[in-house]
Input
Amino acid sequence: MARTKTAFATLDSRSSRFVRIAGLLAAVAAAGGAAALYMEHEGHVVTGMNNQIVWGLPHVFAIFLIVAASGALNVASIASVFGRTVYKPLAPLSGLLAAALLAGGLAVLVLDLGRPDRLTVAMTHFNFRSIFAWNVLLYSGFFAIVGVYLWTMLDRRMNRWTSAAGTGAFVWRLVLTTGTGSIFGFLVARETYHSAVMAPLFIAMSLSFGTAAFTLVVSALYRIEGRPLGDAVLGRLARLQAIFVAAVLYFVVIQHLTVAYTARGGALEAYLLGGPYAPMFWFVQILAGTVAPLVLLLRPEFNRDRRNRLLAAGLVLLGGLAQVYVIVIGGQAWPLELFPGREVTSAAFDGTLGSYDPTPAEFLLGIGGVAVSLLIVAVACAALRFLPESLADAAVDPHHARADA
Amino acid sequence: MTGVRTLLIALGLAAAAVTGVLAAGEGTAPSPAFRQWPGECVADAPFMRRNHMDLLKHQRDDTVHGGIRPANHSLNACVTCHAVKGDDGHPVTVADSRHFCRTCHDTTAVRVDCFSCHTSTPGVAK
Amino acid sequence: MKDVKTPPSAEGRGDTVSRRSLLGAALAAVTLAPGITLYAGPAAAAADGAKRWGLLIDTTRCDSGCSACVTACGAEHGWSDAGRARPDQAPQWVRKVDVRDPATGRTASLPIMCQHCAKPPCVDVCPTGASFKRADGIVLVDRHICIGCRYCMMACPYKARSFVHEPVTGQRPGSPRGMGTVEACNLCVTRVDAGGRPVCVDACAGAGRSAILFGDLDDPGSAISRRIREVAPARIRDDLRLDTGVYYQGI
Output
C-alpha cells in the first residue's frame, strides 16, 4: 500500500511570533555568554563552586542537556532502526534536536572550564586513558554521524542509506551516554558515584529526558504557525514516556539498594534520603518528576487530555534537572572517606558535608545553554525543511485515516 | 580549471611577497617599538625576536616533565635580565606598559599567556 | 631554518630523559643556528626513572597544635592567604587533619598532601595529559596544558588538589600558579631537582619534631626505605591499591 509522501515546509522566519521567540532565545543566550565572560574574567571566585563542590550548576545544565540530546534522537531511531513508519515524518526534527541539545550542553561545559581559551589544547592533546578524552571524541563523532543521518533523510537521493546511518547513530548514542555516565561511574574515590549502574541509569535518563524535550519542542514548533498536530503522535510519545520514566525509577531504586545493603552504606543512604539534598530528591525528582508524570500518563481519566501530556513532559524535565543536581552536587557534597571508620576534622572541611550556593552567573550560563539549543532548532527549522506541514492523525497514520473513513 | 590555476598563481605570488617582506625585515633595524637592549642575550637579537617563543616552549616541556633546569632558557632568566625599573626603582610587572615583553607584544598584538601563572618580575631573595 | 627540537611526546618522556643525557654527554653543545647553541653545557636530567621520591610521616611526633609544614609550604610556594572571605575556595597544597577513632578514643594529627601515587587516578582521568607523573614518581600538573576541567579533583581520593579561583599576581619565581588551573603539592620539585628536600621536611625539623622523612623509596639502602621496613607504616586508602608514595607511621 503506497503512503502519500509527507510534505515538509520551513517555518516562516518573518512571522512576528517566530521573531519574538527567536529574539527571546537570543537574548537569554547572550545573557549566558555575558555570564561566561564575567566568570572567565573574575575567575570561579564569583561562583558558588569551591574545592569541595568542584562542579556546579553549569555542569548540572550541561550534563542534563547532553543526556537529553542522545535521548532526543530516540524518535528517529524508532523510525529508522525499528522501522516504525509513524515516526518517520518526525525523524529529521529528532536528529536536529539531538544535535542542538548537545551543542548547547557542550557550550556550557566548555565555558565553565577554568581556561576556556585553551579549547584547542583539549582538541590536540589526548590522554586516551581519560573518559573525558573519550567523550570529546564521542561528542564530535555524534555531530558527524547525526549530520550524515540528517543528510540521508533530507536528501532524497540519499534515502536508501537512512537505515544504515540511523543504526550507526543509535549505537553511537548508546556508547555516548555510557561514556557520560562513566564519567561518574569510574570514580573509585567517591562512594556516591563508583558504580557500574551509572551508565545504564544515564541511558534510561537520556531516553526519558529526550522524549520529554522532543514532546515539548514539537508541540511548541507546531503552535508557532498553527500547523495541525494530531494525538496519534503525542499519544505514542506519551506511552513511551511513561515506560522511560519507570525505567529511570527502576535504576534509581537499584542504585540506592546497592548502597543501602552494605554496612558502610548506611550513613550514606541516610544522607541521600534524609540529608540536605533529600527534599529535592523526594519532592522534585520523585514526586513531581516521576510519580506525577506516571499518574498523568497512565491514568485513563488524565491521559487523554493533551495538556496533561505536555504537563507530564514538563514535569519530567523539571524532575530530571533535579535528579542531575542531586547526582552532581549532592554526590560531591558527601565527604571523601580518608580513614574508614574514624572521625576526621581539618580546616579544609574534611569529614564535613560540602556546601554550595549557586550564583546568578552560573544559572545564566546554564539557562543560556538551553536557549542556544532551542535557538539552533528554531533557526534550522526556518532555514531547512525539517517539519512536516501536517502531523494530523490522518497524515501520519494511514490506519487511523481508514478507521475514520 | 583556469580559475583554479589563476588562484594558485595568485597564492604563490602572495606567499613569495610575504616571504620577501619577512626576509627583508630580518636584517634591518627593528621598529621603534623594539627596545634596544644593552648587553648580551643567550642569542643575538634577530634570532631571539623570531625564536624566543620556541626556546621557551621547548624549555618549558623539558623543565616541567624532565626536571631539566639549565639557567639560560628559563623564563625566570628572561624576566631577571630584561627587568625594567619603574619610577620607584623596582622592576615593573607586566601590568606596566614599559615591561620588556609588553613593549613588543603590544605592538604585534600577540597575547602573552606566560604571566597568568609565572611572575613577570625578577625573583626576590628569600 | 633549523627548528628547535620538538618537545618529547607524553608517552616517551621517561626514556627521552636518558636519551637526552646520552646526547648531552656526546655533544656538549647542540648547534641550533649559526652562532646559537642550545646547550651551553650538558644539562642535568633531574627526573631520574631509577628513583622514586617519597615521604614517611611519623604521626607520633606530629600534633594538632603544630602546622609548621603548612606555613612553610604556603610561604615557599606563595599560596597561603589567610582571612579570605571564602575559605572553601582557599588553595590547599597541604593541610593538617585530625583523626579520631570513635571506638578507642585514640587521636592522631597528620599533614595530608598529594600522595604521589604510582597509579594516580588524577593522571588517568585528565583529558589533556596535564596531570602527569614524572619518571621519579612526582605527580605534577603541567599548567601549560591544564584546561581547568577539575576532573582530577573529582578523581583524587585525598582531596589533595585545589583550583585557583581568582587572578594571582606576585607568584614565587619557582612556583608558578594561575587562575583557572588546578594545583597541588609538587614535592618541592625545584628543590629536589637541585638535590634538596621538600620545604615541609625542613620546617618540621626546624619546629623540633623531625616527623617527616624524605628519600628514594626505590633504593633499599636509603634511610626512608630502611625505616619503612622497620616500622611497617600505613598508607591512606591503601585498599584502593594506588601505591602511594607517602607513608604514615602510627595511624
Summary: The two ends of chain B are 70 Å apart (CA to CA). Chain B touches chain C through 29 residues (CB under 8 Å).
